[in-house]
Amino acid sequence: MTAQKTMKTYTVKGKEINKEWHVLDADDQTLGRLATNAAKLLMGKHKPTYSPHLDMGDYVIVINADKIRVTGNKRQDKLYYRHSGYPGGIKSVTLGRLLDTKPTRVIESAVKGMLPHNRLGRHQFKHLKVYAGAEHPHASQIQGQES
After folding, report:
1. For 74-90, how does the pLDDT look when each residue is reduced to its tens digit (9 = 90+)?
2. Which CATH number is 21-70+105-135's, of 3.90.1180.10, 3.30.565.10, 3.90.1170.20, 1.25.40.10?
3. In whole angstroms, what separates CA 49 from the centre of its chain?
4. Are residues 30 and 70 in contact, defined by beta-carbon separation less than 8 angstroms?
5. Could you give the count of Cα atoms lying within 13 Å of 142 in the half-sphere of its Cβ?
6. Which parts of 1-147 fold into alpha helices (H)?
7. What is the number of other CB atoms lying within 10 angstroms of the CB of residue 93?
8. How does pLDDT run across 12-38, given as a tens digit for each residue?
9. For the CA atoms of the chain, what is the radius of gyration?
10. Which candidate, 118, 134, 137, 125, places its Cα nearest to that of 60?
11. pTM
12. What span, in angstroms and rounded, lies between the C-alpha atoms of 94 and 41?
């Protein structure tokens, strides 16, 4: 009889996780494609050591959220709902109106729907930073990462 070799399974430890900062420019990009890329980076699926039960993801900064592109008639037809918690307290607003008033909320909503709907997903969502203009206050994190 020959002795069997046992294979060792590699699992990532918490201190081995390296978090980076990514800047995504939303200027003239489709909403869904940008949100997919952001969710993939937040979950860490781009890393070879991806584990679905750990926070492997990186920090994501989205700039120029007010210049996002949507296709078709979504600006008039797509509705976003929120509820105050009181009877009859449901409010709805169109995508076009939301892009005019709070463009960051559109991208946050799209990315949040693509993350896991549990405690880990809520933690990963906190690593998303969305800004309507081209300026963001995270330049020092990105510069520190390059060196």
Report:
1. 999 999 999 999 999 99
2. 3.90.1180.10
3. 19
4. yes
5. 11
6. 31-43, 74-77, 95-101, 103-114, 119-125, 139-146
7. 15
8. 888 889 999 999 999 999 999 999 999
9. 19
10. 125
11. 0.88
12. 28
